[in-house]
Write a structure and sequence with these properties.
single chain; alpha/beta; Amidase signature (AS) enzymes; 11-stranded mixed beta sheet; 15 helices; globular; Amidase; Amidase_CS; AS_sf
Amino acid sequence: MRPYELTLADAAKAIASRELSPVELTDSVLGRIEAVEGRLGAYVAVFADAARHTAARAERDIAAGGYRGPLHGVPMGLKDLIDVAGLPTTASSRVREHHVAVRDSAVAARLRDAGAVLLGKTHTHEFAYGLTTPQSRNAWAADRVAGGSSGGSAVAVAAGAATFALGTDTGGSIRVPSALNGVVGLKPTYGLVSRHGVTSLSWSLDHVGPITRTVADAELVLAALVGPDPSDRAALGEPPTGHPRRTDADLTGLRVGVPRNYYFERVAPEVAEAVHSAIVHLGELGAELVAVDIPMTKYIQATQWGLMVPEATAYHEGTLRSSPELYAPDVRVLLEAGELVLAGDYLRAQRSRTLMRRAWAELFTAVDVIAAPAVTSTAARSDQQTVEWPDGTMESVSDTYVRLSAPANITGLPSLSLPVGLDSAGLPIGMQLIGRPLGEATILRTGRAYETTRESVSRLAPIAV
């Protein structure tokens, strides 16, 4: 096995035992980037020389007894919304063409302290305002969308062009591309990971989290990111709660909620079948499967858009007026639409969110985890604009992808997407595990139990070079 094929956990073990050096691993991943980047377009920029310098320093520090932990010497990518001192943060937009960050974001600083090696900045849908990331191509099929807005991060991890990466998630932007590219994406509890130094889309919905090959890898990255930060007023600084870390696959005593409504409505049959099969497998591992009703479903879309659109427009108010021509047409239309949202509508969306949070809290008195599809369908064709369902309804591609991920953003609940199979076209299918606030340990435990008994789910995308 070549070093770039290793999961984060396996790479960390090899580095800690001196069987693999950070330089060897970084060189291998950089070689993989060189081989596949022209086809995939995952990166805005790759900093190969700086990455090799950091890896060499990590190798010296580890040899001198200064091993910092499982991220030390491991190469990774950062979504290009995340500030790194001295480097551009373009947000994949002409608006940020000349921007250079003055200091590290909180998450970049934590990864630097953990000894991680920055490979480069990965593409986002412009300012994270979209679900396709048009600059990048799906790692499993180049004629399919990467998903968004953290598409570059997910594609890089799926292709072996990063051992792990960070993304952001406002309406599904970590979980959607992770599901579409067959990798793991974790949106933590709102406020658990600081967003200081991360370009905002919607302040009350934004999250930062890891994209990895496995659930075990996501747990390692999350541990490095969590901590108090007075610079982010929403930061909790509390450790995740739930079941203690276990490496066995016994889920006895865990109550898994299986939605009777919403999450399996207008969902591609192969996606529904794969996720139902994965849920049955959780039952075979000892979990109790409990049928549940998802509350307030008819208000989800209106609440998500009622919060996100005006908050995004407020953030971009200055540049939208001074240089609107620099925005891509799809993003500019959304930002201009936000100027038409009334204050009363925004307040009603906030009230709806409060009621939704209460209703979901009540739901979690009966279950520990909710299991459902991460997205309604696998990756759409790059030129596809809409999805037509058997009942005759039509949805835009963005609307169909955000539909199942938005509830966890509105409520701030932790949500994990992990691969559970392929459709008949060979495209990845993702299952979503949602937990109660600060319940990361529970959803991670559930995901680990599944993946350890389904070894093939963590394989790289089959890219011929």
